[in-house]
Every structure is written in C-alpha cells, then in structure tokens.
C-alpha cells in the first residue's frame, strides 16, 4: 500500500497542520510507504500529487476541509486512485455525508482499520461539463451570493462572517428567473436558490438535499422558488433539520443531468468552491470515485 497524505496546513485555522504528524504516524503502521504532500496552493497540491502518482500510488488521504477534499476528488477521479478524507476543516461536509468520524484522530483510526480490512466503496460524482468534478452539492442563488460576499470579507472570522454575509444578502434579496433543463423535463420559475445534491450536506452540515444518496446514480435537486425576505427568514432555521422541503415554496426532484441557466446573475459553487456564472451543465457519473472507509 503506497499512500500520499495530502496536507493543507491552513485548513481549519491550522488544525490540519497541528495533527499532520500524528495522522502520518498512524498511516505508517499499515502502509508500506507514506509520502507527505504539504501544499499551500491548489497548483502546488496538484503538482505534488502528480509526482507521487508517477512514483506509484494506491491511495490519497486528504487531511483538510471540503476545499482540500474537492482537490483530492479531482485528482482521484481523473487518475483512478482511491481517496480517503481525514476531516480537519470548518465544514467537513463530505465526511459527514459518508458517515465518518468528525474528529481527525478518530477518523485516522477508522481509516487505518478500513485499510486493514480492505473496506472500499464506489461513489457517484457530479461533473460540470467536461470540467471539474464535485462530490457534495452544487448551488447557485442566495447561498452562492453569501459565499461570494464571504470571500470578499476579511473580518470577522468563522461563523460570524457567514452570519453577517447572510444579513447583507437578505437586504438585497429578490427572486431571479431560473431555467432548469433536466432529463425529466424543464422547469422555469422565479427562484431564490437552486441546489443540486450528490450528497445531502453543504455549508457545514446543512442538509439542503436531505434525501440525496451518492450511490443511486441521480442528483437530488432542491429549488426554493419565489420567496420574500420574511419567507426566507422563516425557512432558514428549518434548513438545519431538512424540514425546509415541506415549505410550499420549495420543490424537489431527481435527475441524472441538468442545465442551470436563466435571466440571473448567479454564480455556481460546488463543494464550497467557486466555479463560474450560470449557465452550467452538470451530470451525475455513477461510481466515478473509489473511497476507502
């Protein structure tokens, strides 16, 4: 077993860097070779993982958050290498969806056990055109506008930044025209947001697509239609429980393919990472990723 441990030291406000040594030591107990790849940028991470692949590689273990996991997904899906994620970020939505421990050292212990037993499973992935893959949720609308604002802010840190961004975006909220073409038909509606879920969670544990299953070959799609600021304030607390799907302004359905467009200025985000403005075409690719654990 030849393992690359991809560490993003800044993930989780430095949590990944602090536990990297302990995680590496646990992996060395079951792997023949462990190469530690420590990167501070996406380009550096990809270059180092390619170097590890060329030297022979069976498994990439990502130690970091959802942004780090997103980069691991790109590499492993493209090169047919197994992936495992040890959570050390602020969201950890992919690990949450897979049902793994949320604490890094406990997750590393579980991974060591999985390597020893040979436990593997195949997961679906979403793909945007012929470009990036995503493992969790692609979204556009109010939630991506909050992400855009958060990325421009330098203060405060943590959840308070998101809270302030939500308040600011609520002040400028208005429904926009969404056109959603899927393999099962077309939806044209005024909407506040759309989420295309391979898994249930985004935003640090929000089950926006609560019934999404990453092994059924289909996306779960959630559309929040025309809603006022007051409506959205009433819906937001139910997002944490998945009860938002019971609101009359929310529509849900399943699709293997979708094209998101319409007369709006929305930007698509996937796995919490900025992609590009709409329109975007997405497809669910069954069994595209092999995961250890």
TrEMBL record:
Residues 1-132 form the DAGKc domain. Its cofactor is Mg(2+). Belongs to the diacylglycerol/lipid kinase family. GO terms for molecular function: kinase activity. The keyword Endoplasmic reticulum does not apply. Keywords: ATP-binding, Kinase, Lipid biosynthesis, Lipid metabolism, Magnesium, Metal-binding, Nucleotide-binding, Phospholipid biosynthesis, Phospholipid metabolism, Transferase. Its EC number is 2.7.1.-. InterPro entries: ATP-NAD_kinase_N (IPR017438), Diacylglycerol/lipid_kinase (IPR005218), Diacylglycerol_kinase_cat_dom (IPR001206), Lipid_Phosphate_FormReg (IPR050187), NAD/diacylglycerol_kinase_sf (IPR016064), YegS/DAGK_C (IPR045540). This is Diacylglycerol/lipid kinase family protein. The keyword Metal-binding applies. SUPFAM superfamilies: NAD kinase/diacylglycerol kinase-like. Coiled coil: none annotated.
């Amino acid at each position: 077993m030849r393992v690359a441990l991809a560490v993003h030291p800044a993930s989780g406000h430095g949590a990944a860097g602090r536990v990297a040594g302990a995680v590496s030591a646990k992996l060395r107990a079951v792997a023949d070779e462990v190469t530690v790849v420590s990167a501070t940028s996406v380009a550096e991470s990809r270059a180092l993982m390619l170097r590890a692949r060329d030297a022979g590689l069976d498994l990439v273990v990502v130690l970091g958050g959802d942004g780090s996991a997103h980069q691991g997904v790109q590499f492993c899906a493209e090169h047919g290498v197994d992936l495992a994620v040890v959570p050390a970020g602020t969201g950890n939505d992919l690990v949450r969806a897979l049902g793994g421990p949320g604490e890094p050292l406990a997750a590393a212990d579980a991974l060591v056990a999985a390597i020893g037993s040979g436990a593997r499973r195949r997961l679906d992935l979403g793909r945007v055109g012929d470009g990036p893959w995503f493992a969790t949720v692609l979204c556009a609308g109010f939630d991506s506008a909050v992400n855009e604002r958060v990325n421009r802010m330098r203060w405060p840190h943590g959840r308070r930044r998101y809270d302030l961004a939500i308040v600011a975006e609520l002040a400028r909220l208005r429904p926009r025209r969404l056109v959603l073409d899927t393999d099962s038909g077309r939806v044209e509606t005024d909407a506040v947001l759309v989420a295309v879920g391979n898994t249930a969670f985004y935003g640090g544990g929000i089950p926006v697509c609560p019934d999404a299953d990453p092994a059924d070959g289909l996306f779960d799609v959630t559309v929040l239609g025309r809603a006022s600021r007051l409506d959205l304030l009433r819906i937001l607390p139910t997002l944490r429980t998945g009860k938002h799907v019971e609101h009359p302004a929310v529509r849900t359905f399943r699709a293997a393919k979708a094209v998101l467009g319409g007369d709006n200025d929305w930007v698509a985000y996937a796995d919490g990472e900025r992609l590009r403005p709409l329109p975007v075409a997405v497809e669910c690719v069954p069994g595209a990723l092999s995961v250890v654990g």
